[in-house]
Each structure stands twice: as structure tokens, then as C-alpha cells.
Amino acid sequence: MSITKAGAKILAKAYTLLYKPILLMYHDIDPKDKQVVINIFRDTEKKHQEMFSGAKNKSIDDLLTEIPGAEKVEQMTRE
């Protein structure tokens, strides 16, 4: 897989546009705290990759019934 010159240009522009608001919002957060968030999201991303890799043709309702279970879904909707 490769990216075209036009695609690279668009990605560079998107990075610039996204970097500025991120810098404004998170510039004063301690680097250790940032790393904690990254670690949490890394684990979450890995879990979701595994969960969805075999679920391409399943609906969200099917996944909810299979993964947390029907009882848990029912409990969450009552809360």
C-alpha cells in the first residue's frame, strides 16, 4: 500500500489543522498523564480490534447480546 503525492499533501494539511486545537487543549497536561491516556486507549483499541475482527457481518445489537450478554444490556437500559 502506498499514498499518492496528492494524498500525502492532504494528510499534511489535515495534520496541521488537527494539531493546533490539540495543542491548545492539551499543552499543559503533564507528559506522564498523557502517557496514561495513551496506554488506556492502546488497550482499548487492541480489545476492539479483536472484538470486531470476526464481527464484520453482525449488527450492533447482535454484538451487544453476545459480548456483554442480554442480561447486562437489559440492566444497563434500566439504569
From TrEMBL:
Protein name as it appears in the record: Uncharacterized protein
Record organism: Chitinophaga varians
